[in-house]
Design goal:
Blueprint (H helix, E strand, L loop, with lengths): L4 E7 L4 E4 L6 E11 L8 E10 H10 L5 E17 L2 E18 L18 H11 L1
Length: 136
């Protein structure tokens, strides 16, 4: 395969399915956040990558992948074209999207107290307990 990409990141939203009534095909869409590191400065940026999973693979994505989950995404890199209105003018735009061929769940399943990038929020009971132990 000439066009292959592997990305490891955190799922930004729960996957959602779009069905095409006339063909019976279904695509499941979601996005993955990947930390982008810069050698020139200390600023870390987040790169959001859209992913599409078709038919049976899409069904498995819907059952297994949830918001905040760390995943390894394997697929083909493609360009998705869409129309957007900019200053009252319709403009045709493109964006990269990964067409899934497989995925792996990484790490543990996120809890309700973790944010979408898999990091603990400041209001977790564990941090509150540590904070109160430090104060006493």
């Amino acid at each position: 395969m000439n066009n292959t990409i592997l990305v490891i990141g955190y799922v930004g939203q729960n996957p959602h399915a779009i069905s095409f009534g006339d063909t019976g095909n279904k695509v499941v869409k979601f996005s993955v956040a990947v930390k982008e590191f810069s050698a020139n400065n200390d600023e870390n940026k987040t790169l959001w990558i859209d992913c599409d999973a078709w038919n049976g693979l899409g069904d498995r994505v819907l059952r297994a992948i949830t918001k905040g989950r760390e995943v390894a995404i394997h697929g083909r890199l493609a360009l998705s074209t869409f129309n957007k209105e900019v200053n009252g003018v319709k403009v045709e735009m493109t964006k990269p999207v990964i067409k899934l061929t497989s995925f792996h769940l990484c790490g543990r399943k996120p809890t309700a107290t973790e944010d979408s990038l898999g990091e603990q929020s400041d209001s977790t009971p564990v941090k509150k307990a540590r904070m109160s132990a430090v104060k006493n």
